[in-house]
Design goal:
Blueprint (H helix, E strand, L loop, with lengths): L3 E3 L12 E3 H13 L3 E2 L2 H9 L8 E2 L2 E3 L3 H14 L3 E5 L35 H9 L3 E5 L6 E11 L8 H6 L7 H6 L9 E7 L6 E4 L2 H11 L11 H15 L3 E4 L2 H23 L5 E2 L8 H9 L4 E3 L14 E2 L10 H15 L6 H9 L3 H9 L2
Parallel strand pairs: 1-2, 3-4, 5-6, 6-7, 12-13, 13-14
Antiparallel strand pairs: 8-9, 10-11
Helix pairs in contact: 1-3, 11-13
Bound molecules: zinc ion.
Length: 384
């Protein structure tokens, strides 16, 4: 499982830990080649789990989440050179709506230019997705529509401010801005600065807790009236917002209401059905697989995805007790900023231990390792 792949990590992007820098990515691909791995398609993994086909003992399947523009610029041209297939899970809200094909490494017209010349902040457009699909190696599948978080309790964890690492209040307030949030965030441009940030859960894994009584609107209006982002230049901005919150709660009734079960289910179903339909329309293909954003899923939502027409969904992260035998669940492991032989192979060990968590002898090995520090080390490496 990969996310962003680019020459160097961004200094400002709140999710920069998701970036695998190119030298590491190249070394990982070389590792697969040198050690005789077959890079197989996701449909082959699912067919293998169903018992329909055999796969070489050393097989690896590459998936990318989110549809970052840097995949278009760096990762896919390199994978094409190797002839390696991969699956790309896109959340439809984040696809860049502008009709364009941007320059990518290897296009020729950029030869001799520095890597800094490439635009990498943002997400792929539908045209770019069509282009990689047409190449026959990239299989675009669903990562739902919104890929967001929603308030799951009435606990305020902070107030939305420039440079915080919680982009979802602005995603939820202004979905149209989602494809451009990486550069907007750097500029501190959010429509909800000053609003309370509640404790959240992945959108598909929680019934939303909805605030009634105007506290959020009040705080946002207060910050707007005091200059928007420049309000946060004052050293005591946090005290001011805490005091304003207390004053408001004294004078007004603020209540919290949990989303009804039926409306939660309707919302989940819409994310499953609408993302599938949108990708199918834009790319002229059948969408068969779903990746849950931030592992926000359970057995009920998994069943809903199968009802919506998906053949398989990504299993919850590690450890994943019951993914191994079920062909409708896709087990994955993260390969982040690691490149050495030892570290890549320990990621495979970690994957095997979790993919077969209840199967002999892995279950016994897991239990034994849990008593030592080894598994913790492997985990830290694979999920850094
Ligand atoms: Zn994601």
């Amino acid at each position: 499982m990969y996310h962003s792949v680019r020459e160097r990590r961004s200094q400002t992007w709140e999710y920069r830990h998701l970036t695998l820098e190119m030298p590491f990515f190249e070394r990982q691909l070389q590792y697969f080649r040198r050690h005789g791995y077959s890079v197989v398609r996701l449909e082959d993994v699912v067919a293998f789990k169903r018992g329909d086909i055999d796969l070489p003992r050393r097989s690896v399947c590459l998936t990318f989440d989110d549809g970052y523009l840097d995949n278009w610029v760096y990762a896919f041209p390199l994978l094409a050179k190797h002839g390696y297939p991969s699956t790309l899970f896109v959340a439809t809200d984040f696809v860049d709506p502008r009709p364009m094909l941007r320059p990518r490494r290897g296009d020729g017209r950029r030869d001799g230019e520095l890597d800094e010349a490439y635009e990498v902040d943002g997400f792929m457009s539908w045209e770019e997705l069509r282009e990689v699909e047409a190449g026959g190696l990239v299989d675009v599948q669903s990562h739902t529509v919104t890929h967001t978080f929603l308030p799951a309790s009435e606990d305020i964890v902070e107030f939305h401010h420039p440079g915080d690492d919680r982009p979802w209040p602005s995603w939820n307030a202004r979905p149209d801005g989602k494809p451009f949030y990486m550069s907007d965030a750097a500029a501190g441009d959010s429509p909800c600065l000053g609003g309370p940030v509640y404790s959240v859960q992945p959108a598909l894994a929680t019934r939303e807790v909805i605030e009634r009584g105007g506290l959020t609107d009040h705080l946002i209006a207060l910050v707007q009236s005091r200059g928007g982002s420049s309000f946060f230049g004052a050293p005591d901005w946090l005290d001011e917002l805490i005091e304003a919150t207390a004053r408001y709660l004294n004078a007004h009734t603020v209540t919290y209401e949990r989303e009804a079960e039926e409306s939660y289910e309707r919302r989940v179903r819409a994310e499953l059905v609408d993302s599938k339909a949108k990708i199918e329309t834009e790319l002229g293909k059948t969408v068969r697989y779903l990746c849950w954003p931030n592992d926000g899923c359970d057995d009920v939502t998994h069943e809903m995805a199968l009802e919506a027409g998906y053949e398989a969904t990504t299993a919850k992260g590690s450890p994943n007790a019951h993914a191994s035998a079920d062909p409708t669940r896709i087990q994955r492991t993260g390969l982040h900023q690691v490149g050495s032989r030892r570290v890549v192979s320990s990621a495979f060990v970690h994957y095997a231990l979790n993919a077969h968590a209840e199967v002999w002898p892995y279950a016994q090995v897991r239990r034994a390792l849990a008593q030592t520090r080894i598994l913790g080390h492997v985990k830290a490496v694979a999920y850094r």
